[in-house]
Amino acid sequence: MIVWLNGAFGAGKTTAARELVDFLPGSTFYDPELVGDGLRMMLPRKRLEEVSDYQDLPSWRRLVVDTGAALIAEVGGPLVVPMTVLRQEYRDEIFGGFAARRIPVRHVLLHTDETILRERIAEREAIPGDPDAGESVRRWCLDHLAPYRSALSWLLDDAYVVDTTGLTPRQTAEHIADAVREGAGSCDIVQTPEPRAETLAAGVLLFDEDDRVLLVDPTYKPGWEFPGGVVEPGEPPTHAGAREVGEELGLQLDEPLRLLVVDWEQPRPPGYGGLRLLFDGGRLTTEAARKVLLPTAELRGWRFVTEGEAADLLPPVRLSRLRWALRAREQGHPLYLQAGTPAG
Known about the structure:
Blueprint: E1 2-7, H1 13-23, E2 28-29, H2 33-42, H3 45-48, H4 58-75, E3 79-82, H5 88-100, E4 105-111, H6 114-122, H7 131-143, H8 145-158, E5 160-163, H9 169-181, E6 199-207, E7 213-218, E8 228-230, H10 237-249, E9 258-265, E10 274-283, H11 286-289, E11 299-305, H12 307-310, H13 316-331, E12 335-338, E13 341-342
Parallel strand pairs: 1-3, 1-4, 2-3, 4-5, 6-10, 9-12
Antiparallel strand pairs: 6-8, 7-11, 9-10, 12-13
């Protein structure tokens, strides 16, 4: 199990985490910041200059999961992780990675009144022998107060909240331990195993009466997606698309699916790639759209979007696939793509 302590910089996560290890028998303190320190030493300077925060490095997010899984295999007990994560797509990627490895996550938010936070940041001890470094850390913490306020809109819904304003680190840890034992902060994410070979996946485009396309927001991976999923062995892809629509949205498709694109997705380690099919699932009436029911362990939201709005939600490869699928729908014949680009 992972007990992930989130919160603003200066909220006391690290101190509380070290205390929490005393209250959770067999637990181990795991600091993902050490992963970032290692990448700073290993990655070329040019790559590091391309990001403002090591959390923006895909290698950091993957290594946080891989290292955590390796530690659990080594020590067996819970890992206590103090780490600020303010971008929801990074939370999805990291927590989804743990879920894929069958490692449950308890998400706890240490929330403190901003006035108290600013006082704590101002009182942070200087780094011995390097006063400039201490001032840099304090400035970093202050600069992240605004992003923290913005992230509260999803953090308060996603995590178990502990108000630490009037608590000592020891009291905070004791409160967290009691809450974790009662199941608080559990992230019920669908446990989708990572593929071990090329996969065949079927997605379904559903449209409203204004020809906007329906997208869903997975809890276990970053970015929005089309309804659909991996085709099971021996299963016809059209059946897989209809099945996934039923499982993800609670909708039964009565009309046969019409193929729009076949896209060969290039293997990019650690991914294996494979064939991605997109089908036209037809239009949903307003009444039918009201019947959409989401599985909370898999999806947190859905919406109809225009092609332009989809550009702000979909990763580049899925956006390209969508754009060509819409062209195929207009032209009335399917298209074959390679890595999102028409071929032949």
